[in-house]
């Protein structure tokens, strides 16, 4: 996320009347959110980027309210990539 992306997100949320969302810039391993304050956590293709995955899950647990929900969409590698695949930019950039 960048400050520009956050600005655009806030603008779109206001435009569409979503006043129950909050956008913050921070690190996934150290969320800038108080304990037990999040009703929902949505993570889309982010956790795979962190080398400290257990810390990510600990943070989600810390900030999530009791009975809250987590939605995770991510990529998982089930076998080693070939060198050819690693070098093929189209495979990881779409």
Task: Detail the poorly predicted runs.
Answer: none
How much helical structure, as a percent, in the residues? 25-40%
Shape: globular
Main sheet specs: 2 strands, parallel
Report the order of strands and helices.
HEHEHH
Oligomer: single chain
* Helix vs. strand class: alpha+beta
InterPro entries: Arsenite_MeTrfase-like (IPR026669), Methyltranfer_dom (IPR025714), SAM-dependent_MTases_sf (IPR029063)
Keywords: Methyltransferase, S-adenosyl-L-methionine, Transferase
EC number: 2.1.1.137
Family: Belongs to the methyltransferase superfamily. Arsenite methyltransferase family.
Describe this protein's structure:
The longest helix has 13 residues. The protein is of the alpha+beta class. 36% of the residues lie in helices and 18% in strands. The protein has 4 helices and 2 strands. The chain has a two-stranded parallel ribbon. It has a domain of 55 residues. Keywords: Methyltransferase, S-adenosyl-L-methionine, Transferase. Belongs to the methyltransferase superfamily. Arsenite methyltransferase family.
Strand and helix map with partners:
Elements: H1 3-15, E1 38-44, H2 53-63, E2 64-73, H3 83-87, H4 89-93
Family: Belongs to the methyltransferase superfamily. Arsenite methyltransferase family.
Protein name: Arsenite methyltransferase
GO molecular function: arsenite methyltransferase activity
């Amino acid at each position: 996320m960048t400050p520009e992306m956050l600005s655009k997100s806030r603008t779109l949320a206001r435009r569409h009347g979503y006043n129950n969302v909050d956008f913050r810039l921070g690190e996934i391993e150290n969320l800038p959110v108080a304990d037990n304050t999040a009703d929902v956590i949505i993570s889309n293709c982010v956790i795979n980027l962190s080398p400290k995955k257990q810390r990510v899950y600990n943070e989600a647990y810390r900030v999530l309210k009791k009975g809250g929900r987590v939605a995770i969409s991510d990529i998982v590698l089930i076998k080693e990539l070939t060198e050819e695949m690693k070098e093929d930019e189209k495979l990881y950039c779409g």
